[in-house]
Amino acid sequence: MARLRTSLLALGFTAATLALTMSPAQAAPGDVTNVCSSTLTPSGFVDVQWWNSFSCGSSFDPNMKQIKQLTGLPIGTTVNACASTYPPAGWVQVSSYYNSSCRYSSVPSFNNNAWQLKRVS
Questions:
Q1: Which of 8, 24, 43, 103 has a Cα at 20 to 30 A from 72?
Q2: 116 burial class (0-12, 13-18, 19+ CB within 10 angstroms)?
Q3: Residue 5: which H helix or E strand, with range?
Q4: pLDDT > 90 in the chain, percent
């Protein structure tokens, strides 16, 4: 019984890990996906939130992030994004500000860490 329980826990952990690390390639414009911080933010996406989660390991640094698909959004659209990734091509920074949800370091500051982005092309 203990062996079965251990196997089921391992299988569940593996499934959760795969779900967190799957590529968000099928995301529609504006969709958000949660990934571990060790996953690079794909082209066309921006980080919009950071936090700690045991599902991505244990550390004092924020180890999970929410990313948003910007590819396909219409010209003129504005979005708020963390400054932890560069804006995708066709997007420009309109303003910068501090956002507590964008603290991606274990030693945060109150410096501007977020941007308002606008699609221009």
A1: 103
A2: middle
A3: helix 2-21
A4: 68
